[in-house]
# Entry
Amino acid sequence: MKRQDGTGGAVDAPPPMEPSADTEIGAEIEAAAPRHGAADPVKALMRRHHDLCARAVDPLEIAAGLEAHGLTDRAAGRYRHRDVFSLAEEMYARVPRDDDVAGGLSGDSVDVRHGSAVAPGWALFALLPGAACAATAAAVPRVGAGAARLAVVLGGALAVALALRCALRRGPLRVTPRRAPATRAWVCWLLLYALLGDALLRDAVAGGPDEPGDLWEPAVAPVLALTAAVAPAALCARLLALAAGRRLRASRGLDEFAASARPLVFGAVALFLGALAGLLAAARTLPGAPGAWPAGAGALGALLFLARLLAVHGFRRAPALLLAAAGACEVTALALVFAGRLPGCDVLAAPVTAAVDSWGPGVVPAAACGAAALVLLIHAARTLTLASAHARTGAAP
Amino acid sequence: MALVRVALLTEGGYPYLTGEARLWCDRLVRGLEQHEFDVYALSRSERQEARGRVGLPPNVTGVRTAPLWTTDDRTLHGAGPRGGRGRGARRRFLACLAELAEVVCRGTGPGPDSSDPDDMADRFRNALHGLAELARAEGGLVGALRSEAAVRTLERACRAPGAPAAVRAARVPDLLAAAGLMERALRPLSLDWYGDGALGSADLCHATAGGPAALPGLLAQHFAGVPLLVTEYGVRLRAHYLAAGEAGLGAPARALLASFHGRLAAEVYREAALITPGNTHVRRWQERCGAERAKLRTVHPGMAADRFAEIGERGYDGRADASGTLLWVGRVEPAKDLVSLLHAFAEVRAAEPGARLRIVGTAAEGREAEEYLTRCRALAARLFPGPDPADGAHDDGAVSFEEIGGPGVPDLADAYAAGAVVVLSSVVEGFPISLVEAMFCGRATVSTDVGAVVEVIGGTGLVVPPRDPGALAEACVALLRDPARRERLGAAARARALELFTVEQNVAAFRGIYLEIVSHCPVRRDALDEAGEPVPFAHPAEAHVPGRWAASASTAEAAATPSWAGRETDGRDRLKGAAV
# Structure
């Protein structure tokens, strides 16, 4: 009984036993005292505590269970044992043990990351960023130039950011603890480049930009496709978690799990890439979309998805490094072009200029993000197939 | 000036408001105000931390806490996922881990190749120390202990020849669960508690529970030689077995964890300078897990007796005697077996028609308890038809269900005052608090033979087998019919309780034990000068010799030969001094 004195109920309070219905009490009493003349009182006891005996992994577990049912050393005396421990030892030794049974019992309830615990409604939240972006893109051309337009653009950007935050904070793409600010800044830069970078680079190679208005030639369609791709990304992450959890429960060994998980990882990535390609193709049909295939946006989408997937499973270092590397590549490409205008430094701009002249400005993000995504894919194939990546690591069980 | 700097180690207990044994710790700390306490608390859940802490007395000079429920602290991952920065550190990490895993996989029971148990215990300790040193040098090992390499090491050990069949059947979920829970138990390794400003400068570590709570004490002893005192009011290992059964872990995972916790408990008992079980039941478990008998001192928990002083001194007065009332006090739950009590009371009532039964409970918590209370009420109504027994104490019904704070029972002491015989009918009981309260009040008792009841009552009350209404009824009737015997037993019970179960005796016992440990196992620290350099010869060599060197050095004979050089009396003294 827990009251305000004593030791606060801390003194060895065993859990309550099953309630015994009042009609059973007679039977209980009869069973508790071994009948005189019974040849094997322990056998009757074992039958009564059959589950406990079958489940026990060592004699002490039986002893703990017996004591929790009220058996004391004095009661053990009636089974011709000195104490509960020696009685439990006899019971443990007499339980028929089948190794296959032990194997079959194992781990039905091991928590697998996100196997069950995702906030409801995540699918709805995953659709929000795409919707916010589409609304903004539709609204901007309808407002006149000037301050009103600026307000709409800023408001739209804010809405998309909030929607992204909601979508990533809950559901299968949730990362705990949160990412470092530096990584978040690089992601923002990569998205900004996807929006404005290609046009800026084209102008820079051609000798511009001549006036501030030249800076504002946003590539809306690929960014719209990217924000819409949050939904398939969440879906793929969820599918991967569920399938990996199932494989985890079915695997006997770590190598077996790794072998069976590899196709799952590739499958999830392929599924996402397919969905992203579809979204990008759909975006190209929008009025005002550029004619060239947006390879840069595709590579960026793959990079962001893989980085997030790895972070969700507890691998933060490699994604952070590669996001920074891709961002730095894009910064460098722009900086080199502008540096080439300094007297005597033409040679600095030559490689970027040549590449842009041959393949168009999209080559820079495509190469930078594509290479980073490839590295992350190789990393994911090695790390996401580890069983420890799919075990719950955050909250203690 | 503090006499002793005590580091109080807790897990999910003091100083949290919802902690276990917090009242005991609070009384201990307040009772020993001449000593200085530092509290090192491991918290079990986010909720526990959010609920806040109790107020601390001024002699608690510091509180350090660490969560067991999250791994999201960066300092816990200092060593990275591979156990260190250099290649050497990583290799050492894997070697220690492999050793630990192998020992754990062998199980605690006698295996097929019955290897030397002492050897296994040594290997477990070496692995533990190796990991602790690594964590101290490289930073927290939480990430490394949950890494794939750790799980793989565990898998290899499980599949090794010589591992028991239960462990060999381990599948991936078992391995992951076992690795995760072992990491949680080993969390103290990753904490920065062992430096000079913290545990390293304590004179004594007092662990308030076994298992993970005592682990910081083990490491403090390893790093700084601080003696460890372990107090257990409930057996941590037993609690682990019961919890693991309910958590739904697979058999291999449970086997691994049971073996790990068994080894950890044995190591704690082996390293502790003294162990103080709260009752004989705990003591038996500790002996069973390898605690030396010479180290065990039973210290019963103390309870505040002053509330019951008035009633106890008054003894039985007319009011209690005339009523012929049986009293049951406690929290209504199935383990208390009120059903047996009601059946027994039916027999009592047949023999003594004037008898009444008062069931005084604290408010039922949880659905199960409420259902049980409803069932008991229904049974009472069926067995004793008449006025509604639910109306409280004022009616003439045979059985009344009351709550403390209700109209009939303003407080607990009043309830005891009006009872002739106090009955305890539990089938499961730890340390029976209501029984001790009845003893403080000088009431005769009838209780079932469960838990620590026999030890507590010690012949000053009647004891019957559990689940036996006939015996219970017989004992109650015998006491109801014999006021003189009732009075005799009540007085004896009160004397016994005042001797053994007061807060004062508990605090006094620990006061003595602290001084004993500090005098027998003082921490040897290098004396430092102002610049922080060690002072050579600051302690004479004799300081390291156990025994009464100072006393015998005063005689001329002893001045000629060093005291440790083999006089027989010194040898005896040495033994006496070393026996802790």
Notes: Chain A has a mean pLDDT of 79. The CA atoms of residues 179 and 279 of chain A lie 27 Å apart.
